[in-house]
From TrEMBL:
Gene3D superfamilies: P-loop containing nucleotide triphosphate hydrolases. It comes from Herbidospora galbida. Transmembrane segments: none annotated. The keyword Transport applies. This is ABC transporter ATP-binding protein. InterPro entries: AAA+_ATPase, ABC_AA/LPS_Transport, ABC_transporter-like_ATP-bd, BCA_ABC_TP_C, P-loop_NTPase. One of its GO terms (cellular component) is plasma membrane. Coiled coil: none annotated. Pfam families: ABC_tran, BCA_ABC_TP_C.
Length: 255
């Protein structure tokens, strides 16, 4: 079990400093939230962790691996899976096939042997299908496997996204606003699912989230950004009582 260590990460876009020497550590097996007012740098931070943006300076380490210079697929191959703020699934394909696509990086049989249905490729395919079914059961999608994703309610689609990320067998999961656009019942279900991913699978989770109630309920630790700088880092109770955080959310200078 490895920590994710973000050290002095700075991201500049043409004169604008979106992240300014931000540091935090995600302890193994914990839920770590990154929050902050609009424009604070949350999405930029998320994009650096997943390799979409390259930090101008600083480092991101996951265990022994330095992620800073790696492209998104290399970061994924190291066991860091992500979900998207806007659902990024194939809407016409059944849930089952979307989940199977999530296992792509773990597939060793090449395209040709799979196409020719060679015995080793068939065996491997059966193993992946069995694992997809297990993961579907874990996230409560067993009855939905045959449905095209696009026909499912939004909250269920978000669960399919999470399941697809789990299909990569990650050690770290990056969740981009996992409850955005959900009704309160769906939010509750997603919160329970995130906690069971941490507790039953032991996967570390970093989430960027606007829903403060959700963050306070879910997170073991919270990093608060404002204008690209880290203004607080602590337990939910600690950051909630921090004058700098209160100031940032009220639009004042804080301390
Ligand atoms: N690709 C980009 N090019 C130029 N500026 C950018 C880019 N991405 C983000 N920014 C700027 O960096 C700053 C931080 O933006 P970011 O989207 O990371 O904040 P955020 O906390 O995720 O905001 P929100 O809560 O509104 O999504 C903003 O001033 C934004 O305009």
């Amino acid at each position: 079990m490895e920590p994710l260590e973000v050290r002095d990460v700075t991201v500049r876009f043409a004169g604008l400093t979106a992240l300014d020497a931000v540091s935090f550590t995600v302890a193994p097996g914990t839920v770590h939230a990154v929050i902050g007012p609009n424009g604070a740098g949350k999405s930029t931070c998320f994009n650096v962790l997943s390799g979409v943006y390259k930090a101008t300076s600083g480092s991101v380490r996951f265990g022994d691996a330095e992620l800073t210079a790696l492209r998104p697929h290399r970061i994924a191959a190291l066991g860091v899976a992500r979900t998207f703020q806007n659902i990024a699934l194939s809407p016409r394909l059944p849930v089952h096939d979307n989940l199977l696509l999530g296992r792509h990086r773990l597939t060793s049989s090449g395209f040709v042997s799979a196409g020719l249905r060679l015995p080793h490729a068939r065996r491997e395919q059966r193993r992946h299908v069995a694992r997809v079914e297990e993961i579907a059961e874990f996230v409560g999608l067993t009855g939905k496997l045959a449905f095209p994703v696009g026909l499912l309610p939004y909250g269920v689609q978000k669960r399919v996204e999470l399941a697809r990320a789990l299909c990569m067998e990650p050690r770290l999961l990056l969740l981009d606003e996992p409850v955005a656009g959900m009704n309160s019942g769906e939010r509750q279900e997603m919160a329970e699912l995130i906690l069971s991913v941490r507790d039953s699978l032991g996967i570390s989770i970093v989430l960027v989230e606007h829903d403060m109630g959700m963050v306070m309920r879910l997170a073991d630790r919270v990093t608060v950004l404002d204008f690209g700088r880290r203004i607080a880092d602590g337990t939910p109770a600690e950051v909630q009582a921090d004058p700098a955080v209160i100031g940032a959310y009220l639009g004042t200078e804080g301390t």
